[in-house]
Amino acid sequence: MTKEELKRAIIEQILEIAPDVDESEIDPDANIQRSLEIDSFDFLKILTSLNEKVGIEVPEADYAKVDTVEHMAEYFSKHL
Amino acid sequence: MSKFLMPSLGADMESAILMEWLVKEGDRVSKGQIIAEVETSKGVIEIEVFEDGIVEKLLVKEESECKVGEPLAIIASDEKKPLHVEEKHESKQPVVQETKEEQIVSEPPKPTALHVEQEARLKISPAARKKAGETGADLSKFDPNDGVVQLSKIEAASTTEQEEPTKIESKSDTHIEKNSGMRQAIATAMSRSNAEIPHYYLSTSINMTPALKYLEELNKKRSIKDRILPVAILIRAVVLSLKEVPELNGFWQNNSHQISKEIHPGIAIALRKGGLITPALLNADIMTIDDTMNSLSDLITRTRGGKLRSTEMTSQTITITNLGDLGVESVFGVIYPPQLAVVGLGAIIDSPWAEGDALCVRKVMRATLAGDHRATDGRTGGVFLDRLNHYLQNPKELL
């Protein structure tokens, strides 16, 4: 998967878990939880479903490295 | 034979719309079975029946507005009556034996596992249902197996269906309208609380480093889908502390202090587009940490999808509000009547912390308690916060 494809997959998961978020609200450089009002539960759900799709498991200690769509895609592409 | 009444789904509810009957006349129903869905300002709630029997007559039509206490159906007693048919829990509050000033009450409907599976029926979010009502979208077109129908699906359907674009409201209008009902309901309940309940407030700082380290170790061995979030251990610690300080778990009713044996904490859950619901995490006292995490996850999903059950809206024995995700340091709650207390949990923040003679940095959380002074005082609340601190310093005891 390219980084662009990863970004697409991440955005799709966000929209799936938080259906009331509008795609236009998602800024790839903004903190996902704060900017979209996604709580720790929904954030974990997003990571869980991405784990199923992409196969990458983000350990808790690395949460700070996946705080934005951009960072998450970068993290995934490094660990693919 | 008994009448099935529109339950009060919270101190602030006056009426609701009966959206859908899930049973028909002649059906046999069993205690705890969901027999109807009603729409309130807090979304769609599934209403459970509190006795076994046969639905003799449905008294109101679907999509009609009914006041709290209005008869909705007549349930004829089952021929095969169980031996003790005394427990007719028509009222939503726990049954109380009038004795002395402090009583132990036993909660009515235990969530039943024997909830009969219904044939697949359409799940639809409150906002979507409302929109469908306004636009007249045909709900039968949606396949119940496709998951919850969200607002966007209805909007998509109505734009393709309708040639009259002027009828379609913008998304934001719907939200404003939806919010104002809920805001008003919350305001009514909270004004009543502030006017009637003499609150006292306590606050304490808790070193969360031991609990978080323990959790980190635990999660390392687990796959991502079995991971436990800090909020689950916090709830678990509150529940265990309440077992030791039961005076805070229950109700102030009829001028008396009633302690509930069961612990059903109402968890404040924010709806992303505004508003707040505090459904009960039923029987949290008999859960393990994994049960707590799973039930919480399920409760949050159903709250946001508009699929709560009536017992979850009426059984709360205390409220827990956790604003940690938003970075708020401490939250001083307003008690939801007739409950006795509200526990507030703030963000876990790196802070300077004195340990012995040394100053170090620790993960610190501020926990607060607002209590009803008619029932308890600061000493009781202080013991509770002390126990909470104890459990979080000894996280092994939380499993």
Automatic annotation (TrEMBL), chain A:
Alphabetical list of SUPFAM superfamilies matching this protein: ACP-like
Entries under Pfam families matching the protein: PP-binding (PF00550)
InterPro entries with a match to the protein in the record: ACP-like_sf (IPR036736), PP-bd_ACP (IPR009081)
Residue span(s) of domain Carrier: 1-80
Identification of the protein by name: Acyl carrier protein
Signal peptide (from-to): none
UniProtKB/TrEMBL annotation, chain B:
ATP-binding among keywords: no
Entry GO CC: pyruvate dehydrogenase complex
Residue ranges of domain Lipoyl-binding in the record: 1-76
Superkingdom per UniProt: Bacteria
Compositional bias ranges of the Basic and acidic residues kind: 84-103, 164-179
SUPFAM superfamilies with a match to the protein in the record: CoA-dependent acyltransferases, Single hybrid motif
Xref: Pfam families: 2-oxoacid_dh, Biotin_lipoyl
MF (Gene Ontology): acyltransferase activity
Keyword match Acyltransferase: yes
InterPro entries (alphabetical): 2-oxoA_DH_lipoyl-BS, 2-oxoacid_DH_actylTfrase, Biotin_lipoyl, CAT-like_dom_sf, E2/Pdx1, Single_hybrid_motif
Keywords: Acyltransferase, Lipoyl, Transferase
Similarity-based family: Belongs to the 2-oxoacid dehydrogenase family.
Name under which the protein is recorded: Dihydrolipoamide acetyltransferase component of pyruvate dehydrogenase complex
Originating organism: Candidatus Sulfurimonas baltica
Lineage: Bacteria, Pseudomonadati, Campylobacterota, Epsilonproteobacteria, Campylobacterales
